[in-house]
User: Fold this.
Amino acid sequence: MVTIRDVARLAGVSVATVSIVMNNKSKERSIPESTQERIKEAMRELGYQPNLSARRLRSKYKQSPVIAFFWPLDFRVNFLASLINALSHEIKSSKFDCELVIQSYEAGNLEAFDDDLTKRGYNGVIIGACTEDDIKHLESMSLLMPVVLINRESEKFSTVSIDNDMLGKIAAREFVRKGIHSAGVFASNNGYLSSNLRVSAFLKHCKYYGVNVEYENIIRNESTLDGGYYIAADYCELKKKPKAVFCDSDSIAVGALKALHDLNINVPKNLEILTVDLNSSGITAYSLPSLSVIELPNDEIARNIIKILNKKISAGSLTPEHAVIQPRLILRESFS
Assistant:
């Protein structure tokens, strides 16, 4: 299959120059008309299949860049809704004239969308919740647009990530501040990268600060309201219950509150809860009791994603850029 690299080689220019021309940025990047014509001729000679960007090249009307947002449809769909809202707000407030296209996929099977990534002519791509296999596959491809991965690491693509180690440190320090020496963990059993990193960071810093977390006090289930309910029910069966727990998602924490209420466990009198807030939805503030959280600030995540994409698309650059977002501690009734 003919690629943009083949076009660049035949035209005697860089891949970045071809990308600039295809994205209708020639004038602002001062690409000579002779160079533009040479690129178009190379495309015709090689039979390069015009994609969305190429069609824009021929249009007399200015069209907005298209940003594809890939996200798996699983329990994390609530997080998706929160991110879409934050991204939409940031696009509007930053006056970045673009079209946001949502594309669902099955985590671990992103390769099924190779044609979408290589032929549809997206000007930028945001990918959330991908697996390690997804990242390896993406890094083996020659993508022609800037890509931003959310909460993942990559040397080839831009990333916007939460500082998970700091999140774990903040949580462990709060346990120490309250004089808690034995803790439990309510966690997801899905094995997702970010969830594992949060829990691992919490356990590491607990060990450093001298907070004991017994293996049997790490209780796992689905990261859903039902999963949280079942986790709390299992907690109530423990012979020696810790008096404080760290939850790795707000869904688990809210579900756990219901079970604890049904089983006459008073929060925070009998059990204190500190949870990660994934959704920034305000639900944790209105639960009974209100939940103390370490919030993943979706507004900051969205701001950095749009800033990077706007910058890269405008410059015609594929050079990766990385942003690390600090979590926010909000203390309420459940763990004050």
About this structure: Residues 53-61 have pLDDT under 50 and may be disordered.
